[in-house]
Specification:
It contains 14 helices and 15 strands. It has 393 residues and is an alpha/beta fold.
Length: 393
Amino acid sequence: MYLLTIFTILILLLGFLEYYFHQKRINKIPIRIHVNGTRGKSTTVRLIAASLREAGYRVLAKTTGTSPRIILENGQEETIKRKGAANIIEQKYFIKKAVVKNCNAIVIECMAVHPENQWVSEHQLVKSTIGVITNVREDHQDVYGPSLKDCAEALKLTIPKKGYLVTAEKKFFSLFQQQAKKLKTQCLLADPNKMIQDENVKSENFYFRDNVAITLQIGNLLGINKKTILHGISKATPDPGALTIYQLEQDKKQLWFINAFAANDRESILIIWDKINQLLPKKMDDSQRIAIINHRDDRITRTLQFDKILTRDLRFDYLMLAGPTSRLSERKLLQFGYPSKQIYRINKRETASDVVKKIFRLSKKNIIVYGLGNTRGFGMEIMEYLKEKGDKI
């Protein structure tokens, strides 16, 4: 019993010392930016970090999206290799790394999903000076609850104390303001409609104006001039899951492939659909439209949501289903009335090259292909194929 008491005291003492030294490390980094939200977190982290680098900050950044990365102070990247499942304690080691590298700024993506972990991530591990909530959209309803307000209630838990919150979310801005007021934090709305882009700056990083508006608002808070921010944004390396467009040509037919695998809620998909319609050249107006839906076995709810979106909101000439739950998806699509002759299931033996050849055979004219659902597995395989064989637009 005596030994057990000593052991317990020792464990508590070590825990206290670890917490104490972690707080000291946090205080050595004057600018701490914690990025949360439903969509666009990884891209927003990259844009903010790139603008800070351009302004001369020594900044370390971390994304946890399609492919978890640490973005070093020189812009180079390290892939995060995990031995087990992702854990928010990662944030503690990232901050230690930033202190060792003598960084004066960090930009870190929130990796917590459960509400209690979101609170711990902000108020114990990061203690940001500037918090970000990109948007509130449908995701993780099994954790948050069925409504968008439930999502917003969870996301607000990462609003910092006595700092700033920057968000592009208009619908729940008043809810965030109420929480921010309790924490003595200033809440700022980033308005993409007020963003005027330099005509000389061209980059795919400007596809989504909300992310850019958030970055501009943060730059303004830190006293960085707009030209520097925009040039930093244009230099940012896109996240592997970010929207990209590739072009292939075969038998005098053009294929445009829209990498939207990271878009997995209705609002994001419709935004991308409208954006692509604006970007397409005249010659692609009468193209056949095909969707590749890549499914995950741990996202059954998302599979069913996608089937409703594809049936009610968008229409494709063909759907190609990949991943472990593709058979379930096919059954649901048929129940919702989707024509069976327009649905193809991609089997495990088919490579990205096989699928692209099949797509060209399906159409006698130009083709627009949307990659939707998830990047993991076949999504990543086809993106690697396009990087090698296609031309990036």
